[in-house]
């Protein structure tokens, strides 16, 4: 194992749950899927992959640390930067980010993101069939200063921020999820119903 290798205990996991859920009509993190809240599915899948799992957003009563935004919220990059600041203080080497509305992501996601990192790369993100999933990413704490500088210049796009720190893609094949999409995300009632139907048929 090389000196640059990240293990689970080196990584803070953060579920990004600060969105407004406009298309869903209410906080989608608490939407029911198979008799559990959507965020509970995400937490159950993410928690074994990291040293500590926290929530960026409001408190959902799950007994996890809550990381408040360090600046006025302007999208998911606000949550990422805030989480990295929190992680740096806590002594973590990296932050893995997860979306609160995507319950079928791989159980080995973080390990595969970590394996793809090179000494020159500041971030690794998931990709399937040419589709980029920037929320599902592993961010090195060493690039926090660069992210903070870019944030002050007005960058808010996760993709743009990742590209500026030498991000690399980790490619995933089709797998368990509606339509073979492990990164199927639930933004509407119709997508909630489709996910429920897929679970019932699995």
Write up what this structure looks like.
With 202 residues, the protein is an alpha/beta fold. It has a single domain, classed as Spore Coat Polysaccharide Biosynthesis Protein SpsA, Chain A, CATH 3.90.550.10. The protein is built from six helices and nine strands, in the order βββαββαβαββααβα. The strands form two sheets. Strands 5-4-1-6-8-7-9 form a seven-stranded mixed β-sheet, sandwiched between helices. Strands 2-3 form a two-stranded antiparallel sheet. A hairpin with a 2-residue loop joins strand 7 (123-128) and strand 8 (131-140). Helix 2 packs antiparallel against helix 4 (144-152). The model has no long low-confidence stretch (mean pLDDT 92).
In short:
The chain has helices at 38-46, 76-90, 109-116, 144-152, 158-164, 189-201, and strands at residues 11-17, 32-33, 36-37, 52-57, 66-67, 94-99, 123-128, 131-140, 167-172. With 202 residues, the protein is of the alpha/beta class. It has a single domain (8-201), classed as Spore Coat Polysaccharide Biosynthesis Protein SpsA, Chain A (Alpha-Beta Complex).
């Amino acid at each position: 194992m090389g000196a640059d290798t990240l293990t689970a205990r080196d990584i803070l996991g953060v579920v990004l749950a600060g969105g407004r859920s406009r298309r869903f009509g209410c906080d989608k993190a608490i939407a029911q899927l198979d008799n559990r809240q959507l965020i509970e599915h995400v937490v159950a899948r993410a928690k074994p992959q990291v040293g500590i799992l926290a929530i960026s957003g409001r408190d959902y009563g799950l007994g996890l640390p809550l990381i408040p935004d360090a600046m006025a919220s302007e999208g998911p990059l606000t949550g990422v930067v805030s989480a990295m600041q929190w992680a740096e203080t806590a002594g973590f080497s990296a932050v893995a980010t997860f979306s609160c509305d995507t319950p079928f992501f791989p159980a080995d996601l973080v390990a595969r993101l970590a394996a793809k990192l090179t000494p020159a790369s500041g971030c690794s993100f998931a990709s399937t069939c040419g589709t980029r999933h920037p929320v599902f990413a592993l961010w090195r704490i060493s690039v926090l200063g660069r992210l903070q500088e870019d944030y002050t210049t007005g960058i808010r796009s996760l993709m743009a921020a990742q590209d500026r720190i030498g991000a690399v893609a980790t490619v995933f094949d089709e797998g368990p999820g509606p339509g073979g999409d492990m990164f199927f995300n639930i933004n509407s009632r119709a997508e909630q119903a489709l996910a429920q139907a897929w679970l019932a048929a699995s």
